[in-house]
Design goal:
With 162 residues, the chain is of the alpha+beta class. 29% of the residues lie in helices and 28% in strands. It binds nickel (II) ion.
Length: 162
């Protein structure tokens, strides 16, 4: 699977709910995990592989592969923390992003089972970054606007070369 890059409109669309968790969705989840790991990523959202549906996969520092389908973040901590983020769709750029330290998320897994997860630290960070992708939001939207503009310009320039 090819990961789309900054400049592709699909990254800016609000993704649609997954209507039914079929074998096709399960296969997509497996392929996304493979693509993510091959790219040395810790999370990958469906819009990044060109599918505008509400689904992402994560493998954070606990090493557990997790699939989130139709997720909802139902609680966030008041405590905020900064951490350097990157994105497979914006390769080679890393910036500090401030987000809640803890979250509670509800979703279905690839088997269709509903679950609730309380996460903090790095896992909470990765989940929030991936969740943003379903809303058409990228981490550069959460940094200094001047830095964001520079990064966007770099990718526009590159697209022109291809
Ligand atoms: Ni990303």
């Amino acid at each position: 699977m090819t990961v789309v890059r900054l400049g592709n409109d699909i990254l800016r669309q609000k993704a649609l709910p997954v209507e039914e968790i079929t074998d096709e969705i399960r296969e997509l989840s497996r392929e996304m995990l493979v693509t993510m790991e091959e790219a040395d990523g810790v999370g990958l959202a469906a819009p990044q592989i060109g599918k505008s549906i509400r689904m992402f996969v994560v493998k954070a520092d606990d090493g557990v592969e997790r699939t989130f389908i139709n997720p909802q973040i139902i609680a966030t901590s008041n405590e905020l923390v900064g951490y350097e983020e990157g994105c497979l769709s914006i390769p080679k750029y890393y910036e500090d992003v401030i987000r809640p330290e803890k979250i509670t998320i509800q979703a279905r897994n690839e088997k269709g089972r509903r679950f609730t997860l309380e996460a903090d630290g790095f896992l909470a960070r990765v989940i929030q970054h991936e969740y943003d992708h379903l809303e058409g939001v990228l981490f550069i939207d959460r940094i200094d606007p001047a830095k964001k503009a520079k990064i966007e310009q770099k990718f526009l320039d590159k697209a022109g070369e291809e």
